[in-house]
Specification:
The chain is an alpha/beta fold. It has helices at about 5-10, 45-55, 85-95, 115-120, 135-140, 155-165, 170-185, 200-215, and strands at about 35, 60-65, 65-70, 85, 100-105, 110-115, 125-130, 145-150, 195. The protein is globular and about 70 Å long. Bound molecules: guanosine-5'-monophosphate (5GP).
Length: about 220
């Protein structure tokens, strides 16, 4: 008689002894690290704020506040949107290995604290980081199980329109950000997921679906 399931073809002696609790160890206990990037103006803040404000936001999903040396925008609050540091304060923290990664973007430093995501993940929470692409690739090299999600505009013309309508940046700043966006789009291929931000509610639903799907991912032996 031929074996009709994969299980029947594995010699019993090659199988690990069954754990006392057959459900144990299938899903990781540690939380996941989601890294969201995308060109300036694509709507990362709007999409993430809508996700976290939604009653359907997956419980145990936390946002990691990062640090920057750029000046706060009028609507930004220190400790809620960023930790705002002077260049000296930031450089001291680079020296003391405060950061998991840091990058220069448009002439300013940006950096992700090392301890916060690690501690939250140890406690089983999932952490979301919103950082630019170089930082995301550094995180991936240091934290190989990080899940990289690229938020893309529906078209290049739409990205230009969104950046210009933001009105917090002058035209030369908009042009600089568009130039950076062009090189960022080229790195999207190295990400795990691409989410198009056409309608915010669709992008939020897709992000949520990715989080929920990743929570169902079975942990395999290394
Ligand atoms: P903005 O000045 O528009 O707030 O941010 C500029 C870029 O820096 C955005 O792409 C934002 O996601 C990114 N960014 C924010 N925090 C960090 C960080 O800690 N590390 C890195 N590498 N990029 C960050």
């Amino acid at each position: 008689m031929t074996a009709n399931t994969a299980l029947e073809t594995i010699p019993v002696e090659a199988m690990a002894p069954p754990p006392a609790d057959p459900m144990a160890g299938l899903l990781p206990k540690r939380g996941r690290l989601f890294v969201v990037s995308g060109p300036s103006g694509v709507g990362k803040d709007a999409v993430l704020s809508a996700l976290f404000a939604s009653v359907e936001c997956p419980p145990g999903l936390l946002r990691c506040i990062t640090a920057t040396t750029r000046a706060p925008r009028p609507t930004e609050i220190p400790g809620r949107d960023y930790f705002f540091f002077s260049r000296e304060e930031f450089e001291e923290r680079i020296q003391s290995e405060f950061f998991l990664e840091h990058a220069t973007y448009n002439g300013n430093y940006y950096g992700t604290p090392h301890d916060y995501p690690e501690q939250r993940r140890d406690e089983g929470d999932d952490v979301v980081l919103k950082i630019e692409v170089q930082g995301a690739l550094t995180v991936k090299s240091r934290v190989p199980d990080a899940i990289l999600i690229f938020l893309a505009p529906p078209s290049w013309e739409e990205l230009e329109r969104r950046l210009r309508s933001r009105a917090t940046d002058d035209e030369s700043e908009v042009c600089r950000r568009l130039e950076i966006a062009r090189s960022e789009m080229a790195i999207a291929r190295r990400y795990d997921y691409l989410v198009t931000n056409d309608l915010i509610e669709d992008a939020v639903a897709t992000l949520r679906a990715i989080v929920l799907a990743e929570r169902c991912r079975i942990e395999h032996e290394p």
